[in-house]
Specification:
Elements: H1 11-19, H2 21-30, H3 36-50, H4 55-60, H5 63-71, H6 80-98, H7 104-107, H8 112-120, H9 127-141, H10 148-152, H11 169-184
Helix pairs in contact: 1-2, 1-3, 2-3, 5-6, 8-9
Length: 192
C-alpha cells in the first residue's frame, strides 16, 4: 500500500499511515473527540512502543499491559483507556475475520456497499466513520470498489470536509477552514 495522506505533521507518522494498512485503520478508529493530527499519530506511537503494528499481537496482549502502552505518555488519545480497549477489540475482529490483515477488509470488497458494511462491523466504526474511511481509501490509497462514491457521499465529493481530503499542510488548512465555517453556521460535516 502506498497512500498520499499527510495529516500528522510528522513525516515518519504519515509514512506509517501510507504504508501500513493497520496504522491507517487505527488512525481512523482513533479519530473522534481529538484533533485529526492527534488521532492519526496514535498508530505511530503504538508502533514506537511495540516495535511493530501487528493485529494478532495487539489482540493477544494482556489488556492491562496494552492500556499502559496506550496511556504513554504521550497517550494515543484523549481517552487512552477506552480507546485502547477499542483498538484491541478492533484488532481481535481483524484477526478473527480477516486473518490479521487489515487490508483484507477492503482489498476484495466487491462493492462500495460491501466495504462500508465491513467497516461498520468493526468496533468503533459507525455510519459516518465508515463513509469517511471509504472516501479516504478511494482518495488517498486508490481503493475504489464500484459504487464507492454513492455510499461514501458526501465525503466522496470535492469539498475539503474530512481527513479523506488531506494530502498536504495546505489541504489540512482547507479542511479546518471548512469545518470552522460549518460550525459557525451550526452545520456538520455531512451538510452543505
Amino acid at each position: 500500500m502506498k497512500g498520499t495522506l499527510a495529516v500528522t505533521g510528522d513525516p515518519k507518522a504519515d509514512e506509517l499511515l501510507n504504508t501500513q494498512p493497520l496504522a491507517l485503520l487505527l488512525g481512523m478508529l482513533l479519530d473522534q473527540q481529538v484533533p485529526m493530527e492527534w488521532a492519526f499519530v496514535g498508530p505511530f506511537r503504538l508502533y514506537e512502543r511495540l516495535g511493530s503494528l501487528d493485529a494478532a499481537e495487539i489482540a493477544a496482549m494482556d489488556p492491562e499491559k496494552f492500556a499502559a502502552i496506550a496511556k504513554g505518555p504521550p497517550a494515543i488519545h484523549r481517552f487512552p483507556g477506552s480507546m485502547g480497549k477499542r483498538v484491541q477489540e478492533c484488532c481481535r475482529v481483524i484477526v478473527e475475520r480477516y486473518d490479521g490483515r487489515a487490508e483484507a477488509i477492503w482489498e476484495d470488497a466487491a462493492s462500495g456497499d460491501e466495504l462500508v458494511a465491513r467497516l461498520r462491523d468493526l468496533p468503533g466504526f459507525g455510519a459516518e466513520k465508515a463513509k469517511i474511511f471509504t472516501a479516504l481509501l478511494a482518495k488517498r490509497v486508490g481503493v475504489r470498489p464500484p459504487g464507492w462514491e454513492k455510499v461514501a457521499a458526501p465525503f466522496s465529493d470535492a469539498t475539503p470536509r474530512s481527513v479523506a481530503d488531506i494530502d498536504s499542510p495546505e489541504t489540512l488548512a482547507k479542511v479546518r477552514e471548512w469545518k470552522k465555517a460549518m460550525k459557525a453556521k451550526g452545520k456538520q460535516k455531512v451538510d452543505d
